[in-house]
Amino acid sequence: TPVPIREVVEEAVDRARTTAQSKNIAITMGGDLDTEVYGDHNLLVTAVRNLVDNAVAYSGPASRVGVGVNERAGLVEIAVVDQGVGIAEDAQDRVFERFYRVDPARSRDTGGTGLGLSIVKHVAADHGGDVQMWSEPGRGSTFTLRIPSADRPEGSGRTGRVTPPSLSDVVRDGE
Ligand code: ATP
Ligand code: MG
Q: Contact, 160 vs 151, CB < 8 A?
């Protein structure tokens, strides 16, 4: 069944809002929110929520998190951009593994299990899409979840490498 992306993004962001407010982190959303994908509403919310929760958890106070939707070439791309701690280069290949956490000692107070991103990866694959990550230690991270659009033209909607959107790309429409 077609799932409205606006509902998915709003639900995911709503659930992260309390934690974000306690750290004075503003979450902005924007872009092509009036688009649909085929799939499971709850699984998609879970996936986006994991990305937003991470963006908030691994960012310092008074930073910004952007959630931007971009529909092109038959794909709906949901980008979650943060200005947080980032991920060291040698850990970037491993963050999607089950139970992997970059720095268990330092991130103990965030209380995670290391399952979030492996779930995101599975939800992406189950929907014929993918998840990609770009990160610069000390500057922030961008995660993109891409799912074929519900109204894509025949033959489009294939995933491939793209360049990450910047925070200003992502939040512009939401301002
Ligand atoms: P869980 O999501 O199960 O509560 P978790 O957040 O530790 O626990 P993942 O979401 O799978 O697990 O993330 C794995 C690791 O990747 C995290 O422990 C963290 O070190 C790193 N990470 C994930 N997202 C970010 C991000 N936006 N910025 C910096 N580091 C991140
Ligand atoms: Mg997590």
A: no
Between the CA of 109 and the centroid of ligand 2 the distance, in Å, is: 13
Say which residue the tokens 């990450």 belong to. 164
Distant-in-sequence, close-in-space partners of 91: CB < 8 Å, separation ≥ 6: 100, 102
Confirm whether the ipTM is greater than 0.90.
yes
The DSSP-derived string for 98-149 is: TT--S-TTTTGGGT--S-HHHHHHHHHHHTT-EEEEEEETTTEEEEEEEEEB
Please, which residues have CB less than 5 A from ligand 2, an ion?
Answer: 54, 112, 116
Quick: pLDDT tens for 100-144: 988 766 655 666 888 999 999 999 999 999 999 999 999 999 999
Please tell me the distance between residue 144's alpha carbon and the centre of ligand 2 in angstroms: 15
Q: Which residues line ligand 1 (CB under 6 A)?
A: 50, 54-55, 58, 82, 84-87, 95, 100-102, 107, 112-118, 141
Q: CB–CB of 68/30 below 8 Å? A: yes
Distance, in Å, from the CA atom of 123 to the CA atom of 142, rounded to the nearest integer, reads 18
Residue closest via CA to ligand 1's atom 16 equals 95
- Tell me the C-alpha distance between 26 and 105, whole Å: 27
